[in-house]
Design a protein that fits this description.
heterodimer, A: 7-stranded mixed beta sheet, 4-stranded antiparallel beta sheet, B: 110 residues, mainly beta, 5-stranded antiparallel beta sheet, 0% helix
Chain lengths: 113, 110
């Protein structure tokens, strides 16, 4: 089954404790992206990647890091999480670029106290 | 400053009638637009898209209209079904960046 898998689905943690949200896709897609969803703001793009070792900033990259060492994986790293990063996060992928429909994971709800 | 706005937070429609969801954007450089649907506890799923060189795209019950001069697009769902009840996001693209609106909650009453 074609899917984008995010882990964990839920996480409550404390300010400053580094965390990583993993994202993996099994569709051999080149394009992957991270979004955060906040009430009244919709989805905002954090980072995206066109292919292995190619990443670029979206609209809200501050406080986040990403890496793309393998085609299937695109982890989101919060080096020093802060309460304003409490949000619902989605990873997505598409065959080549954002012009094409993206497949989304089911989301990761992060609460940072 | 939101570049993509969905000014109606919610919309309620009777089953079988037309649902019209609206989206306005400010950047005339956006060259493609997409609509996604989202159910609770799930990720968004792609619905329909349109390139800036077109003014209409149709897929079954779903039609998207683009008015570039007004910087406005709309999604028409005809006929509406209870299973269409969800949050609908419009998104505008430039290069490989996507900007989403805040979403509209659609409720289709049976």
């Amino acid at each position: 089954e074609a899917q984008v898998t995010q882990n964990p689905r839920y996480l409550i943690t404390v300010t400053g404790k580094k965390l990583t949200v993993t994202c993996s896709q099994n569709m051999n897609h080149e394009y992957m992206s991270w979004y955060r969803q906040d009430p009244g703001l919709g989805l905002r793009q954090i980072y995206y990647s066109m292919n292995v070792e190619v990443t670029d900033k979206g609209d809200v990259p501050e406080g986040y890091k990403v890496s793309r060492k393998e085609k299937r994986n695109f982890p989101l790293i919060l080096e020093s999480p802060s309460p304003n990063q409490t949000s619902l996060y989605f990873c997505a992928s598409s065959p080549r670029d954002s012009y094409e429909p993206q497949h989304f994971g089911d989301g990761t709800r992060l609460s940072i106290l | 400053d939101q570049q993509v706005k969905q000014n109606s937070p919610s919309l309620s429609v009777q089953e079988g009638r037309i649902s019209i969801l609206n989206c306005d954007y400010t950047n005339s450089m956006f060259d493609y637009f997409l609509w996604y649907k989202k159910y609770p506890a799930e990720g968004p799923t792609f619905l329909i898209s349109i390139s800036s060189i077109k003014d209409k795209n149709e897929d079954g019950r779903f039609t998207v209209f683009l008015n570039k001069s007004a910087k406005h697009l709309s999604l028409h769902i005809v006929p509406s079904q209870p299973g269409d009840s969800a949050v609908y996001f419009c998104a505008a693209g430039l290069g490989n960046k996507l900007v989403f609106g805040a979403g509209t909650i659609l409720r289709v009453k049976s």
